[in-house]
């Protein structure tokens, strides 16, 4: 019985063998690269139809589709990530967290940005002083209930 | 002798008395709202000219300008922030951190997004199913050195 | 300039002097006891009209109303609460957390219960073998986005 | 010799093979879905008769019944759960813990809600603005002893 | 307005001035030494009549009685106590915790010893090889509910 | 070469096969149930003669006796135990630790209760309002040295 | 009412004013330098007669003697000390802890070195390759009880 | 390819089979028991000649000598050791750390005791009131550099 | 499919068999010893051409080259390293961290030293009072952006 | 009675008033900038003559000299520093710690770089692609003792 970790291993092997990039895989199944990667890593659930397309694209065993469509258990290391590429985002949340909160309150009211009804993209922006990484996040505004 | 914490208190009092929003303060001094708020909170250093403009706009004591232009000591609580509005960003980094890393490597090579040569904005995006919070970050790509 | 902690102190003193229970205060302003207590403790924001009613009921200074209506910074001790009455709820989340997740997924799909669009009540249920505490929570179901 | 972890694996496989939901399994053995799931996960002990019914319903090996009826060792990760669906409950305890305590004291006296003589349910409540997750907990009130 | 910490300070000063031991104070108000000390430290609530007796015995201000009868907030340092006299009890729980659990299960069934409906005493037991500290705890057995 | 963990596994299997309780095993080798259980779990060392009796009673391999008589390495999870039955004892130490210390100092002087020259028992005390768990600990008083 | 922290401050001021070393103070009251320093820091209790001698030697207020003779609350930072001079001892315990345990077991049996019936000294040992710090500790051997 | 953990296992088996004590092994190779034990546990590196003698004494495979002479990676559990025999030394460092620092500064100047150019011994000291464990440590004094 | 951990094991075995030092390996492939070691440990990515040279020098399987050129996941133990040789560097950062920050700000402005566009070397400096370890680090200065 | 924290405050005020840089202060007293800053921050002890020069240069009260020459208590936050400028050095130790250890062992033998007999400098190195921060550390090699 395959679980999400097994399927991740199968996906990585197939991706290497086929010489595909995440962006190419995402395009073939009509999903975004961010969602595709995180669902392949077992941190999101594919809609079943998309899971079946992925299985076809990568030549995975048929039963992998159902596994890819299951609700995942999102476990990550609490506290501090050490990889510099990930740590920098943690640092940004630490430094700018209160600013994000203040501006959301100013623009919307007493509430938060949803991390569930949420999407994100990563793009490369050319620049003469060195290209830049652009990360865009968008989440539904959720108002605190008063009852 | 004023320090950054004292100046933050003075700014918050002046902002309340003048009935200004962060966006309005930012516009008056020609800086972005994200940078303006974080520098007012003592997490960034204003260029001296901008600090002097801020002092004029908010009617702060003259010596505050120099304090606002000093390099800050960026101290934040390590581990897990508890306010839900901030926690959701921490959660996004936990869930999507490895995805950000994978896509940056795929698009740029072996490196990271700088959190120093960095900018960010927050905007409100109208949507029929409920308005959305949009957060855009951009940082210079830094390639690991091999020597 | 009053802050939320100052107003909490004023509320507790007025409550003691007037001999009011949280339930009575809540009823007078037409809000639930859970929300009323948590907003008086500075963990939620009252709608401004309700804040003004509370100021009238408890004889607080007028400027307290605006403070009670500000977005709070929800700071609580991460890790483990020690008071036995609070710890038992933490223990319930530890023991039954995976069960809540499994049943939410079974009944709704891949998503969560919102802690923002949320309400809660506490009631006393008489029982011959010893009265029982009943806690009811209700939060909007939020479906994970796939994009 | 089977242990609780082995039996959990057997249950999950049988559940998948038989295409049963937790609610259906619970109904077949006349227990609640919350208790049934948590006992199947090894976090509660089934009464022996119920364990034997479960073994029959799912076609488990006979010796599994005794294992399901043993007192479990309730081990969960201390500190902060990361899965968003579980974290939101942890957040609720953090934000509303002091409120639950204050209202229990007001309604009952100096004591706590038991997490041992305890039951819980999860239901789906239809709502035009989006269905809601309703969680009901009930625990016996325990008065502190003074001696 | 006195709080529990203030009253503890007043009690310690009165106890020193009057030259009383905890055992003597406990005897004068007809409570046990363990409960008396912990309630004087603000970790338990005296029944109001006992609080008033204590106020009379120690010559405390009248309003202290009500404070001593309030439900306390039992905050203690999580993790590891450092004072050797307290640490040894923590160590005993670490070493013998699974043993206490196994024997309670063997003698009673699937349940726990209550820490709420609970009492404790400390006595000195003479012994030729060196006197011994005897600590006796007793708590109501609470059976896990199956529902 | 057997180690303490191996022997614990053998003991648990033999105990189950023979249908013995810890109390019965303890009685057969003339030791207390608390010590017997904790030494079988590898947290204490049996005197060699007792270890040999245990080997005979449970039909263990002969080399197990020497292992059971070795000094153990007492490793337990620092910080907070999660199982409710064990946690309640941790909570008692948190709430009553300073009280135990104060009363030991009052009755004995500046010192502690030994956790090494130590014994403990668990008994069931019938009570009309529900039977009670009684835990008795006794440790030699150790006086701090002044030199 | 003086407490131990107040007395420590008075001692440090008197020591500086009188130009005395810890060794000289210790010699004047007939105690060891290690015990004298730690009791002056509030980590040990002087015998009352010694406390009175110390009060006389340093010209402290008379009531300080009783404070110095009270049982202290030994609070120290759990986890890792940062001062290099103290950290090195922590490191020694980390590296050689299992060795100390193995050799104590080999020489004495199943037991420990007491940290209560304990003494320690620090001496300077001249050496041509650089003088050495010599630390000697001695504690009573305590045998684990088997009961 | 043997590593230090493998060699430790081989040493423990050979020691048991040959019925040797650490003191006897140490004597046979002309090293101290403390160093011998810690190097056998992989926490120190034997000089190669000594490693070869040990290999001969215990009948280890020849390649073990080189492994025993490699620089070890000294990994130990940070924070708090739980075994009582080791914990007591941790407690001593907690209680007496500032005293050790004060006396080293008084006797030597601004510096520390080296934990690298370091030796230690454990001896049994007979005493009518119960034998005592004596631990002696000596480390080179290192003066802080001022530049 | 080889991963970075597998390749590290192969490298260590080949290095031992060939009797090469890290400095010699580094020289053969024309990279620095610091970079070579850290990339062999899987903490940096070799340029592909260098990876292929390393494969040739050490006789590794051909597919190892690609693995050595992959972006690594830089995972290290957060908090405190215990090995004394590594801990001393951690201690230096703790003691001198604010000094490094102050001097960088004084010499450059409001910014940091990059740990990405970074190089480092270790050399042995002969000295009559004992040879010294010299560590040189150099990183590009990165100025905080103000926007 | 001044302590090190008081003197640090006086130094910072004098430095600001006199418009001096750390490098200029260091030069005036003939010490390095790194040592001067860290000793002014209370993390190192000045030789008394240098302390007196500093008092003269900055116009501090005479008694400050003695305080500056006292052995400091080097307390820093264990775990992870959050300021990006300091964090990067922590990250370097995390990523390159094992490499530093391996190369020190290869060049010197089984030992460490002293953090006590230690010096450090920070310089600005012009570069066409952006100036670089150069940090040089040098510490005496200390060989582990084998005894």
Task: Tell me which protein chains meet in the greatest interface and how many residues each side has.
Answer: C-D, 67 and 67 residues
Helix content of chain A: 40-55%
N-to-C SSE string of chain A, H for helix and E for strand? HHHHHHEE
Biggest sheet of chain A, strands in spatial order? 1-2
The CATH architecture of the largest domain in chain A would be Orthogonal Bundle
> Can you count the helices of chain A?
6
Radius of gyration of chain A from the CA trace? 18 Å
| CATH fold-level topology of the largest domain in chain A | 434 Repressor (Amino-terminal Domain)
Globally, the shape of chain A reads: globular
Overview of this structure, please?
The structure is a homodecamer of 147-residue chains. By secondary structure, chain A is an alpha+beta fold. Chain A folds into two domains: 4-69, 434 Repressor (Amino-terminal Domain) (Orthogonal Bundle); 84-143, 2-Layer Sandwich (Cyanate Lyase, Chain: A, domain 2), CATH 3.30.1160. In chain A, 50% of the residues lie in helices and 18% in strands. Chain A contains six helices and two strands. Chain A has helices spanning 4-18, 22-29, 33-40, 48-58, 64-69, 84-108; strands at residues 111-125, 132-143. In chain A, strands 1-2 form a two-stranded antiparallel sheet. In chain A, strand 1 (111-125) and strand 2 form a beta hairpin. In chain A, helix 2 crosses helix 3 (33-40). The relative contact order of chain A is 0.11. The mean pLDDT of chain A is 95. At the C-D interface, helix 3, helix 6, strand 1 and strand 2 of C face helix 3, helix 6, strand 1 and strand 2 of D. Strand 2 of chain A pairs antiparallel with strand 2 of chain B, so a sheet runs across the interface.
